[in-house]
Write a structure and sequence with these properties.
The strands form 6 sheets. A 10-stranded mixed sheet has the order 11-12-15-18-21-24-27-30-33-36, with no helix packed on it. Strands 14-17-20-23-26-29-32-35-37-38 form a 10-stranded mixed sheet. It contains 4 helices and 38 strands. It has 345 residues and is mostly beta strands.
Length: 345
């Protein structure tokens, strides 16, 4: 089922499948418009094979969760299904995928990370590039982009920066020294002092390090209704799609949420917790202070995570876990008792 609200499309199913279809160019303007053959020429130094049957303009980028028309799709891992669109250019370094996928437009390349960075830096202007510009107006002690949209009932306090494309809903309170960019903030949200929403995700290649080689992060942050974000928090924008904070969630001070994280509704997180990239957390989850989450794992609904735990694997619904690596809390307590009784081995 799809619901359209003010230009946004919400695809509703399981909370793990929540998808927000936004206009990327409001946040990241197009630098160049290429067609498929242009891309093929640009990648001549990386190109192994090519099959181009329709030469359309490239205006966006797709992900495995959100296939868009007139886009490129970097497909480096096999997917269970794929919408065979005539206006998607698939780029892959996987020979098996290249020969098996039934699409009209595809390129086989080497060095996928370099190609990803190279092409996206050619197509989009983002705030880690020298070409990026915004235009601000100084209002009530804060700098507000003329490309942002803020409801009249929202309160933006002093020394804040509200960047290009940002949408802020009704009755939102943004406290002093806060930066919001590349984000959509729903109604009745409170964002406390010194927090940053929509910052650059940690996209890097261990074989090619350094700031000039970071992977472009051209997604956004979506904050649901009635959310509290504490002071000194950092929420990174998605790499391609989004980072989501679900309705009614409560974030304490000093929390870091990395790119592509999805928090379900009614999530409560205590201070100094760090959530690595692409973690999905279900509804009604309670997380103690100083918890760390490894990347690319799924936490089910109604889970409780004890303070100072290290979560390294998927966790089932209704679990209560503790320790490092985090395990069922009853088992963890037995281990602690045995350690005290028999000593560490």
């Amino acid at each position: 089922m799809k619901i359209k609200i003010e230009g946004l499309i919400f695809q509703l199913g399981l909370h793990f499948d929540l998808m927000i279809d936004f206009d990327r160019t409001k946040f990241f303007p197009l630098k160049n418009i290429f067609n498929c053959n242009d891309i093929k020429i640009l990648l001549k130094d990386y190109l192994i094979d090519a099959n181009i049957k329709s030469n359309f303009e490239i205006l966006d980028i797709s992900s495995s969760n959100n296939i868009k028309n007139n886009s490129i799709f970097f497909l480096f891992k096999e997917v269970s299904s794929f919408d065979n669109s005539d206006s998607v250019l698939v780029i892959t370094c996987n020979t098996k995928i290249y020969h098996s996928i039934k699409v009209k437009n595809k390129l086989l390349i080497n060095n996928e990370n370099e190609v990803y960075n190279f092409i996206l830096n050619k197509i989009f202007i983002h705030d880690d590039s020298l070409e990026y510009k915004d235009h601000f107006e100084f209002k009530n002690g804060s700098y507000i982009s003329k490309f942002s949209k803020i409801d009249d009932s929202a309160i933006i306090r002093e020394n804040c920066i509200i960047g290009r494309g940002v949408m802020i809903g009704k009755n939102v309170i943004v406290k002093n020294n806060t930066v919001i960019k590349n984000a959509i903030v729903s109604d009745n949200v409170i964002i406390c002092e010194n927090s940053t929403i929509g910052s650059t995700g940690f996209g890097f290649d261990l074989k090619n390090m350094g700031s000039v080689n970071i992977a472009p992060q051209i997604g956004i942050v979506f904050i649901g209704k009635n959310v509290l974000v504490g002071s000194n928090c950092s929420i990174d924008r998605g790499k391609i799609d989004h980072t989501i904070i679900g309705d009614n969630s409560m974030l304490d001070n000093l929390i870091h949420i990395a790119h592509n994280v999805v928090l379900g509704k009614n999530t409560c997180i205590a201070a100094q917790t760090g959530i690595s990239g692409s973690v999905t957390i279900g509804d009604n989850v309670i997380i103690g202070g100083q918890v760390g989450f490894a990347g690319h794992i799924k936490i089910g609904k109604n889970v409780i995570v004890a303070a100072k735990s290290g979560v390294t694997k998927n966790i089932k619904d209704n679990s209560v876990i503790a320790g490092f690596p985090a395990i069922d809390i009853k088992e963890w307590k037995k281990n602690i008792i045995n350690q005290k009784k028999y000593g560490h081995k």
